[in-house]
Amino acid sequence: MINYRLTSIFICFWIFCISIVFYSFYNETESEKVFKKQVRKKAEKSFFKKIDYYKIESNRPYLSLNAISLDITNQQYMEFHAPKGLVYVGEEQTKFKASSGIFESNRNHLSLESDVSIVSDKYQYESNNLFVDGDNSILVGQGPVKARLKDDISGDTLVLNGGGLRSYVELGKTDMFGGVDGKLHRKRKYEGGLDFKSEKISFDNTKSELILDKDVKIHRNNYRLSAGRGEVLLENFNKKLKYYTLYDDVKLIELVKLNTGEKQTRRAYAEKLEAFQSKGEVVLTGAPRVEQGNDVIKGYQIILRENVELVEIDDSQTSFSLKKKRKK
């Protein structure tokens, strides 16, 4: 016989237990509500107009700025309108200005937005957004980004435009990406500069070295070059050491002036190209091939000199078809 009374009591008991569990999940207790109200009350907010703000870090100035207005939350989260001032990034004193900014005092994070400009003795950046990680001496910019970098060793200047940047200030390294085009301005202007493009560039100020990565293009004087990757050693311009090197599917195009006074297009292909500025020559290796008019030149190593018709070949395997003008 089924005991209906006992069964009913059992079912009611479980319904009661389940109701208690659901209630505890989806409803706050009075004590929890009071606690959250207290937390909200503890969020202190302040507002100032036409302010000057300073922060001292390790017994020296870390941040100083003036702004049209300032909103402070809990003495740590600060929102500025039209900030302008100085911030130390590592040992580098840097001037900045922007349309707006946020400073998180407890983490030394400064975020600048809209018409951002940040300048020091070694670099100058302009971008839509720029983030300063003061504790780790890192700058991060989001595009479009303009950069002006000075090489300490050669005294040359790099002017770059790209989609974004990441600068490790104390290490002297800067990465730019998102399609970068740039110009290298020599300290001695008569030496001539260098125009280049690549998907990404990395500049190491401590080594005076510029690395180009993916879809590299270089224009120097009469040379138009393309390759998969490349490197430029800025300090080697006037030395016997290589000035720049290109790797992977290298192509060179040059308009050569012949002895007859005519101009002819010269095309060269190789896996590697090394340029020695002091000698005025480029060295092609890795199955190099040169096409000049109807001439096809192959060899283990081929040396070209700018605006010079003569081609120097090592271990040549050449194919010539020379056109000679007949005397009338």
Descriptive account of the structure:
- The protein is mainly beta.
- 11% of the residues lie in helices and 59% in strands.
- It contains 2 helices and 22 strands.
- It has a 22-stranded antiparallel beta sheet that branches.
- Strand 7 and strand 8 (123-133) form a beta hairpin.
- 25% of the residues are buried.
- Residues 319-328 have low confidence and may be disordered.
Helix fraction by DSSP (H/I, runs of at least 4): 10-25%
Distance between the termini: 133 Å
What's the overall average pLDDT, rounded? 81
Low-confidence stretches: 319-328
Largest sheet: 22 strands, antiparallel
- Reading the helices and strands in chain order gives HHEEEEEEEEEEEEEEEEEEEEEE
Q: Compute the number of helices.
A: 2
Q: Roughly how many Å is the radius of gyration?
A: 33 Å
Helix/strand/pairing class, anyone? mainly beta
* Number of DSSP-assigned strands: 22
Percentage of β-strand residues: over 45%
Judging from the principal axes of the Cα atoms, what is the shape?
A: elongated
Short description:
With 328 residues, this protein is mostly beta strands. The protein contains two helices and 22 strands. Strand 7 and strand 8 form a beta hairpin.
